[in-house]
Structure to design on (228 residues):
């Protein structure tokens, strides 16, 4: 059982480039989300989705786009990368049965913007 | 808004020492509380959770009790091992906001030495 799979694991971009971080889960979870992890700041929510076709903004959405065309996939797009987006990005999913359910995290994508 | 405050690290202990990592929270509603652990190079894994006041979560020798009167969820372990070295995150999920966001503390790094 793969759980939550993120690709790539590492990426270096130049300022202004675009890219898509991939996230897939095989647990049939309705809820998926993206977080970024920065030193001394914990994890902060970027965007989330409560089901296919439904997305919403989190705490730090600026500079990122998402879409949810299937239950399994939830890609995160950087349209024009900026150095401030250098971070480690985590995708997570959970069952849609409520906030008491824990979230399952991928292993992360370490992104550097030069 | 919701917030989680954790003790600053790093915390360095000798093997078999007693561990306490303090966590306090503020929330609008009655949140669910979680401890996640992150080993080097990996994503976050759920360590334990508690969903209502006076609940005790436990796993792998770790324990934490949901204290509503002191708004705390301190993590404890009676005898740590070198393999417990990791970063520990306290987090809450507030059902008032639909439970769609995990609010994290900044994390506490634990180093256990022989």
């Amino acid at each position: 059982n793969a759980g939550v799979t993120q690709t790539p694991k590492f990426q270096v971009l130049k300022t202004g480039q675009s890219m898509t971080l991939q996230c897939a889960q095989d647990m049939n979870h309705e809820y998926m989300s993206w977080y970024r992890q920065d030193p001394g700041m914990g994890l902060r929510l970027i965007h989330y989705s409560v089901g296919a076709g439904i997305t919403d903004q989190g705490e730090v959405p600026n500079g990122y786009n998402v879409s949810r065309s299937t239950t399994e996939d939830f890609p995160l797009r950087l349209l024009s990368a900026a150095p401030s987006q250098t971070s480690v990005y985590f995708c997570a999913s959970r069952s849609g049965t409520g906030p008491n359910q824990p979230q399952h995290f991928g292993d992360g994508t370490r992104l550097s913007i030069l | 808004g919701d917030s989680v405050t954790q003790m600053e690290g790093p915390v360095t202990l000798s093997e078999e020492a007693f561990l306490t990592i303090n966590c306090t929270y503020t929330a609008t509603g009655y949140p669910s509380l979680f401890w996640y652990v992150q080993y080097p190079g990996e994503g976050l894994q759920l360590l334990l959770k508690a969903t209502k006041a006076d609940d005790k979560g436990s796993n792998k020798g770790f324990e934490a009790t949901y204290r509503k009167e002191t708004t705390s969820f301190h993590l404890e372990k009676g005898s740590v091992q070198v393999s417990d070295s990791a970063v520990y995150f306290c987090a809450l999920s507030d059902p008032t906001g639909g439970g769609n966001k995990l609010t994290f503390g900044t994390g506490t790094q634990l180093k256990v030495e022989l």
